[in-house]
Amino acid sequence: MSVAASVFRCVSLAVAGLVVLAASALAQSDPLPSWNDTAPKKAIVAFVERVTTQNTADFVPESERIAVFDNDGTLWVEQPMYTQLAFALDRVKLMARQHPEWKDQQPFKAALDGDMKALAAAGQKGLAELIMTTHAGMTVEQFQKIVTNWLATARDPRFKRPYTDLVYQPMLELLAYLRANGFKTFIVSGGGVEFLRPWTEQVYGVPPEQVIGSSIKTKFSMRDGVPILLRLPDVNFVDDKAGKPVGINEAIGRRPIAAFGNSDGDLQMLEWTTLGASGPRFGMLVHHTDAEREYAYDRQTEFGRLDQALEIAPDNGWTVVDMKADWKTIFPWE
């Protein structure tokens, strides 16, 4: 290495070190820069400081710092419909040529007609049938490839951007802040676990083994001497409402000390995390109040209804985030 190259390398390393130190200092001074300096931000920081301060009664060892996050409406957009439902509708249209009977058969007729009211009226059973039919009959690897390809090309109808662009910058900061303070972050979603796992690590920094979700049954078999897992059109587990605490217990084996959601589908997860347990606990609901920058909805929506959880939040000590008032920015690209 020449003297000039050696000097350049030293200078580069020094500059890089200064950048890292500056970033670290900034993170310490304001770990949540996209949050307004309102009550929710203060509550988050106070909780993290409380459980990470050693030699105090509220100190929590890193092994017990478990934080769970809902996905739809908590980490990314869930209007005008869940992203996985948009994926399923595209799958129905793609597969419809092989199924002419679908034009007169619900919920497939509603999917082909774009009838959201009829889809909502089909309820959980109808949506489960739609998802099982369009998500099964292939290997796990084949399904993951289909999901990855769809996310690379599909666009949200309002923002005209990839769905993975429609993640909430304040929540990305929150995930990073918690991990920087020794928390292990999990996604606990009513959506399909195999739909989420191909991309959550890249987008959220949450690896696939820390994703809990609904699932269909899979079967191990050998195909031409190669072991495969085949996805079957049969429900295995629904990770929603009362299913969320069950999924957390089965997958993690520890009770979380912090839970973040946005709807009544997250109610039992927040209750399991915060009620009847010893030590400091934190529960938070994201309330969608910003129709201009995102959406405003709660009790009157088919997707992400927030009613009962919002009513009991004050009595349970849960922090409610007013998206319009508490977030400076919503999306990373703003």
UniProtKB/TrEMBL annotation:
Keyword Signal in annotation: yes
Pfam families, A to Z: HAD (PF12710)
Gene3D superfamilies, sorted: HAD superfamily/HAD-like
Entry keyword set: Hydrolase, Magnesium, Metal-binding, Signal
UniProt GO MF annotations: hydrolase activity; metal ion binding
Protein name from the UniProt record: Phosphoserine phosphatase
Signal peptide feature range: 1-27
InterPro entries reported for this sequence: HAD-like_SerB (IPR050582), HAD-like_sf (IPR036412), HAD_sf (IPR023214)
Domain of life: Bacteria
